[in-house]
Design goal:
Blueprint (H helix, E strand, L loop, with lengths): L18 E6 L5 E7 L2 H8 L8 H9 L2 E6 L3 H15 L15 E4 L8 E4 L8 E3 L5 H11 L10 H10 L4 H4 L13 H15 L4 H16 L3 H19 L11 E8 L3 E10 L2 E11 L6 H13 L10 E3 L7 H12 L4 E3 L4 H24 L3 H16 L7 E10 L2 E11 L2 E2 L5 E4 L8 H22 L72 H4 L17 E5 L2 H13 L6 E6 L4 E3 L14 H29 L12 H11 L2 H6 L2 H5 L6 H13 L6 E2 L6 E2 L9
Parallel strand pairs: 7-10, 10-11, 12-16, 16-17
Antiparallel strand pairs: 1-2, 1-3, 4-5, 4-6, 7-8, 8-9, 12-13, 13-14, 13-15, 17-18, 19-20
Length: 725
């Protein structure tokens, strides 16, 4: 716990102009970002008597070790800078509304020759018209299915469209009348675009005129005794009315507005947003957050507006935003919204009429969302705290381990040996800090030696970061020169900025080269940067300050309070030996053996046995299982890539596109191997030098063994015509 007076700036040093300020902890991590109309007055509030501060504010200022600020010209600039820094630094004491999913939109790709209707998530694209967001993708598909009867717009992917155009046969939707089949020329591009425009107009709320026109055509067809056409038009009208019922009119005058409501208590807050377009509720979304900072309803509304419109396209900001309480700097927020939209935006509290009635409905939804969240997680925070306390008590730790790192080794019969590091903070996964390793210092299967290498590599990098930022108290012990060099691996690509939990994509193998042990690597370099042994003297000037420490999360920069290894006594001893070689003695170590779920401590002959019902054991199991999952996912991806390797991979400078062009031209690697350099040069994009490299590389590789007929023992080969002999 730091004393705020130790880093409190003098009042005369703080300007009285608008600006944004950052609190940093002892590791230079940004832990809080705020803005102020008057920096001097705002910062003075943090350095009053601790007893007068809100408990969350008191925790923040005692965790911080320094404060700094940036002066701006206006409150609008302060708002913009605050939002960008919160997104960049992810400070732990700022309120962050974490969405558990990416809300789907109904999108019409007007930027294509034949516009396509589809469900889209994520960032918006130029030239695409969006409707929504919707709570569920199935709600969009139900609406689209009803409307395709009347507006048979293309919904197929580019591959399906091209295949239908090539074969001259439309897909199933073209046969049943739910697609106008532009792929086979049933309609012209102009006619199809007109259908897409009508579809967009209907979705935008201009429905009455179109339905009246259909009803008029239906009546005319009946009078002319074209009963089949009249029946079809009748069904079209019914389909459109059913689609309209799914988004009933709630506001008159084709209003475009977003209504935001907040439900809160001392610890948490829920936000609900209704998106009204053309007078109809087109979508609904919501978030629940922990109130990690002392913030009132107006502050929560401001954070919600930043979250909602900070990354949205300008056309997603409506003309009117209705809120339960105006932000403290409402004029600046309104100007920021207007800048995002490109025109004036009304930010106000509804006082009467339909809009106030609808706000009551939104507020009711927020209350229900908060109640449901509390029902699901009534004991979640309490359980996590109890689990950490049980772990601390069982392992004899002075304090609860708020940061836990777990390591696991994975391989398949000694091949493709890899390791994983997962991080849990406050009992929750911190996927943005997961790491992967390749074991390169030796071949074969040796889990103990692998664990020693990985732990050494991880904490050598920590010591390097600590030395680089000037946090050395004394020169650390010189590590074992025989220890393997650190080949730090790439971060987990699943961690999003919604640290929200999303499925991991296929892990890319770590291809970091073996480093020269003499230079100090630049931590701002690319992801596969190799670390070195702990420094034993002053850093050379050329590498002492590769860049100013800016508070961004860095790889391996922060130590855990508890290090967990997947394994028993041998793995724990290997991890302890690696830390001892680096002179690190302030990190607790334990191992969790799978057989009996025993917890092993260094230098103890008997394990610690936690009760099966222990929340601490359950948390350790979850951390160990997550490390195992992450390691085996990486190992499988490496093995799959190795199996898919081709002789052409060895050709320097030959990319994937030209590899495919060569295989497509010759049909197989075998025929490419038999080709002359002049024949290889005939492939588009292949020059003579590249052709010579391909020929030399394939000539130096051993061809694959021929197939053998197991019944007769004869070799099966292919002649130039492709027939088997």
């Amino acid at each position: 716990m730091a004393d705020p007076s130790s880093y409190r700036p003098k009042p005369g040093q703080i300007p009285d102009s608008p600006g944004v300020y950052k609190f940093r902890d002892e590791h230079r991590r940004v832990i809080y970002v705020g803005k102020a109309k008057n920096l001097r007055q705002r910062l003075a509030n943090y350095f009053q008597d601790l007893a007068g501060l809100h408990p969350r504010t008191r925790t923040m200022v005692t965790t911080a070790a320094s404060v700094e600020w940036t002066v701006v010209s206006t409150e609008v600039e302060a708002l913009q800078l605050e939002y960008s820094w919160i997104k960049e630094y992810d400070p732990r004491f700022n309120v962050k509304y974490r969405d558990d999913k990416s809300y789907p939109y109904l999108a019409v790709t007007l930027n294509e020759e034949f516009p396509r209707v589809q469900v889209m998530r994520g960032a918006k694209k130029k030239g695409v018209r969006y409707f929504g967001p919707y709570g569920h993708a199935w709600a969009i598909r139900e609406t689209v299915d009803l409307m395709l009867r009347v507006f048979p717009v293309r919904t197929c992917s580019a591959g399906v469209f091209k295949n239908a155009a090539r074969t001259g046969r439309p897909c199933l939707l073209g046969y049943i009348g739910k697609c106008s089949a532009p792929c086979v020329g049933r309609v012209t591009p102009e006619e199809h675009r007109e259908l897409a425009d009508d579809f967009c107009d209907f979705m935008a709320g201009r429905t009455g005129t179109y339905i009246r026109r259909l009803e008029k055509d239906m009546t005319a067809a009946a009078e002319e005794m074209e009963y089949e056409r009249a029946a079809r038009l009748r069904d079209d009208v019914e389909a459109l009315r059913r689609a309209m019922e799914k988004s009933a009119v709630v506001l008159a005058d084709a209003t475009d507005a977003d209504l935001i409501a907040v439900a809160e208590d001392e610890l948490e807050a829920a936000v609900q947003i209704f998106h009204v377009r053309g007078g109809r509720v087109r979508g609904q979304r919501g978030w629940v957050t922990d109130k990690v900072e002392n913030v009132d309803t107006s502050g929560l509304v401001e954070h919600a507006l930043q979250q909602l419109y900070g990354e949205e396209a300008g056309d997603s900001v409506p003309k009117e935003v209705l809120v339960p309480a105006l932000p403290e700097h409402s004029d600046a927020v309104s100007q920021w919204l207007a800048d995002r939209r490109g025109s004036q935006v009304s930010l106000r509290i509804p006082q009467r009429g339909d809009k106030k009635d609808l706000m009551v409905t939104v507020q009711r939804n927020a209350q229900q969302a908060l109640g449901l969240h509390k029902t699901k997680r009534a004991s979640d925070l309490t359980t996590r705290s109890r689990a950490l306390e049980e772990i601390a008590e069982a392992l004899g730790l002075d304090t609860a381990p708020l940061r836990i790192e777990c390591f696991d080794i994975s391989h398949l019969q000694g091949d493709d040996v890899v390791a994983s590091m997962v991080v849990f903070e406050d009992g929750l996964a911190r996927k943005g800090e997961y790491r992967r390793f390749q074991i390169k210092s030796f071949e074969g299967q040796d889990d103990v030696r692998s664990m020693h290498e990985v732990i050494g590599r991880r904490f050598r990098r920590y010591l390097h970061e600590k030395e680089r930022t000037g946090e050395w108290e004394e020169t650390p012990a010189t590590p074992d020169p025989s220890a393997a060099p650190d080949l730090s691996a790439a971060p987990d690509p699943s961690a999003a900025p919604d640290p929200c939990a999303a499925p991991d994509p296929s892990a890319a193998p770590d291809l970091s080269p073996t480093p020269d042990p003499s230079p100090i690597p630049d931590p701002s370099a690319t992801a596969n940067l190799a670390a070195v042994s702990a420094p034993t003297g002053p850093v050379p000037d050329s590498a002492a300050e590769p860049r100013e420490d800016d508070g961004r999360p860095k790889r391996f920069a922060y130590p855990p309070q508890l290090l967990v290894v997947d394994g028993g006594q041998p793995q724990v001893a290997a991890a302890k030996r690696a830390l001892d070689e680096l002179g690190i003695d302030d990190i607790a170590i334990c191992g969790l053996a799978k057989r009996l779920e025993e917890v092993w401590l260094p230098d103890d002959d008997d394990p610690v046995v936690l009760p099966r019902s222990s929340e601490g054991l359950y948390l350790l199991q979850r951390i160990r299982d997550e490390a195992h999952r992450f390691a085996i996912t990486y190992q499988r991806a490496k093995r799959a890539k190795r199996i898919r390797s081709s002789p052409l991979d060895a050709v320097s400078g030959l990319g994937e596109t030209r590899k495919q062009a060569l295989i497509k031209h010759f049909g197989s690697v075998k025929k490419l191997r038999q080709a002359t350099i002049d024949e290889i040069c005939e492939v588009p994009g292949i020059g003579r030098r590249t052709a010579e490299s391909v020929a030399v590389s394939l000539a130096s590789t051993t061809p694959a063994m021929p197939a053998v007929n197991t019944a007769t023992g004869e070799i099966i080969e292919e002649d130039d015509g492709g027939s088997k002999t």
